[in-house]
Amino acid sequence: MTLPFKWEFPGGKVEDNERFEQTILREVYEELNLRVSVIEQLPSFSHDYESFTITLIPFICKIEEGAIILTEHEAFCWLSPNNLLDLDWAAADIPVAEYYLQTLKT
After folding, report:
1. Is residue 101 within 8 Å of residue 84, measured between CB atoms?
2. What are the tens digits of pLDDT across the range 10-66?
3. Does residue 10 lie in a domain region?
4. Has residue 7 been placed in a domain?
5. pLDDT digit string (tens) for 58-95?
6. Residue 77 falls inside a structural domain
7. Which of 27, 47, 53, 73 is deepest in the core (most CB within 10 A)?
8. Domain total for the chain?
9. Is 54 exposed, middle or buried (0-12, 13-18, 19+ CB in 10 A)?
10. Does residue 49 form part of some domain?
C-alpha cells in the first residue's frame, strides 16, 4: 500500500494456498525479522480508499525470537495502549487500533 508518512500495522497480501495465520507470521518475519506466534485473531475490517478497497485481518501476536531489522519500513515504535492513537495512522488501520483498545477495557 502506498501511503507515505502514515503508520500501518505490519502485514500484507495472502499468498495462494496460505491461511491468514501463515500470512501474518511470514509478513512479520519478512518486514521486521521477528518470529511471532498468534495469540488471537481479531475481527476483520474493510476500508474504501479512493482507488482501492482493503480488508485487514488483524492478529494479536507474541514475539518469540529475533531482533527488529526493518526491510520495508522507515521506522517502528512500541507504544503503550494509552498512546496508540497518537500516531498518524493509515485510515484502514484506525478501526483495528480502536477495536484493540476497546477489548483492553472490558
Report:
1. yes
2. 999 999 999 999 999 999 999 999 999 999 999 999 999 999 999 999 999 999 999
3. no
4. no
5. 999 999 999 999 998 889 999 999 999 999 999 999 99
6. yes
7. 27
8. 1
9. middle
10. yes
- Alpha-carbon distance 1 to 105, whole Å? 31
| Structure-block grid coordinates of residue 68 | 527488529
Q: What is the domain-level CATH number for residue 29?
A: 3.90.79.10
In sequence order, which residues have a C-beta less than 8 Å from that of residue 6 and are 6 or more positions away?
Answer: 88, 89, 90
Q: Alpha-carbon distance 74 to 3, whole Å?
A: 12
The grid cell for 62 is: 507474541
Distance CA(75)–CA(71), nearest Å, equals 10
Query: How many angstroms separate the CA atoms of 99 and 56, rounded?
Result: 12
Question: Taking the model in full, what pTM does it have?
Answer: 0.89
